[in-house]
Amino acid sequence: MARMARTDGVITPVKGKLGILMPGLGAVATTFIAGVESIRRGFSEPIGSVTQMGHIRLGKRTEPKFPLVREFVPLAHLDDLVFGGWDLFEDDCETAARKAAVLEPRHIDQVAGLLRTIRPMRAAFDPTYVKRLSGNNVIPGGRRDWANQLRQDIRDFKMRHGLDRVVVVWCGSTEAFTTPSEATLSLAALERALDENDPRVPPSLVYAYAALMEGCPYANGAPNLTVDTPALLELADKNQVPICGKDFKTGQTLMKTIIAPGLKARLIGLNGWFSTNILGNRDGEVLDDPESFKTKEESKLSVLHTILQPDIYPSLYGNMYHKVRIEYYPPRGDNKEGWDNLDIKGWLGYPMQIKIDFLCRDSILAAPLVLDLALFLDLAQRAGMYGIQEWLSFYFKSPQVREGLYAEHDLFIQKLKLENTLRHLMNEEIITHLGLDYYEPNAT
Question: Which element (helix H / strand E) includes 205?
């Protein structure tokens, strides 16, 4: 649950421009920026965005009310969004978008005027954490220098564009696998680690630190260890900033959080789930490194165990075997393909199988998540909410929760939690779907 800075129920009105800064101006970020500009110009629809196309049910079923989410809660308007970010490559966003080859040239041409004006600021980068990439657009010096420069970049960006507020959404690569260390056990320890240029502090964590120090909400779109460390949890509480993560839920894991709840609801057993992916974009190149893949694997493997609860249903899921593979295959580009084989069992233990071949476009699925997270985090901050925003778990493979709680992975429970949070913020009745119609004809 998010903490509340105030209890008066007042949401600060939307006023002025909202800046969205992204570490990593590659395939996901440029697809997101190009898409928003295309939508603003009336060329496209915001397909995949809950904030833009979603409706929310209010009140009783006998009084059908289904307003658009963007008309129900006070969200920043698309026309008031300003984009920027950091990258270790110097390419402007038009060049980066063409290299990423997610969008067809005709779609980039429509919005090229905006894209070419967005040039990346210098990145915080340590090749130890992303071995397959190298670039020269980097901040010199050590980790304290990175933090100071990133904080100044945020202030300069805000002043240059006359922004009222800024949100930071990580769209960069997956870093090598790390676990919490003494350097991140407290804010004081992290401050010392930055001063000492401690190599146990990954670059992604420095971005998050800079954002929170500047009072900017932060969403972690990769499985990197960042705002889920004691140090940054402490900082988020101290500065009363909302945070969420981690790892955008797009292709194969999205399918798992849709299908696994259905199997469990019908009490259909699962003996094994084998998953493999092939992709050829920059993310695939990075994940070809075993250390970076380990970070992604940890995020992807946690989903089924939490949804299926093998401890509660040992005969159905206690011996489930779950395997995940990611293969770098350059010809595929951003068009990732996920293959899944499910060995399931039904009545009297009879075996059956499910095969899934999901030919998806990774950045196309991720782009609307960036938009929703930025707008919802801005809403959370204006509502006085800070710390972990568990109601945004809907968007992540490995949702961040407060210590002592388990992460909810069931997509449908996550969606209900998100919508009920919006109802609560707007003083509307929470929907339970009890539907006790035979007792109370007008019950919700």
Answer: helix 203-213
